[in-house]
Amino acid sequence: MTFNWLDLVSSLLGLTCVFLAGRGSKYNFWVGYLYTIALFFLFWQKDLMASLLLQPVSLGINILGHYRWTHPKADEVSSEKTGELKVTMLTWPERIIALAVVLIVAALWGGLLQRLHPADPQPYLDSCVTILILVAQYLSAQKKWDCWVAWILVNITQLILHLSVGNIFMPIVSALYLVNSIVSLVHWEKMYRRKA
Predict the structure, then answer these.
(1) How many CB atoms lie within 10 A of CB 14?
(2) Cα–Cα distance, 134 to 154 (Å, whole number)
(3) SS3 label, residue 144
(4) CA 149/CA 134 separation, integer angstroms
(5) What is the pTM of this model?
(6) By CB neighbour count within 10 A (0-12 exposed, 13-18 middle, 19+ buried), where does 172 fall?
């Protein structure tokens, strides 16, 4: 393993972004824009194509989330933060659909990636992380409590992926993300009960 400045910068931006998101701060989106750009170049450097291709989509979801969190419909306004979106939850049928989408799309994307870019060292794991991140980001953009369950799965999978390709800082960051996801899951549950 060798030291990589991009790995360090990405790690610091990511930690800041998820810490702010876990606290329900709309400022997480500004840091998220920089984080997405840094990750794009890090994954390009490491030849992780599914993760690389995720970044432009990530940026789009980040923009959507920024808008949704700051422009809620009348019945979606937080009881504590004027003009901000409140935390809600998926129904059980929605959760089952989300899980099925992750499994099916990850398997298809992994197979396609293996054929199109054989240099990817972990095409199925890379694809699984990619699809989980998209689902977690979309749920975060909608301020759904369930996003933290998805982020917990993402963080466990990313920890394995980053260790497998020799990144130094991103495995540590993934472990810290995992802790933050668990804390945020509890925090958002309290916000959900308060309709915040």
Answers:
(1) 23
(2) 10
(3) strand
(4) 13
(5) 0.85
(6) middle
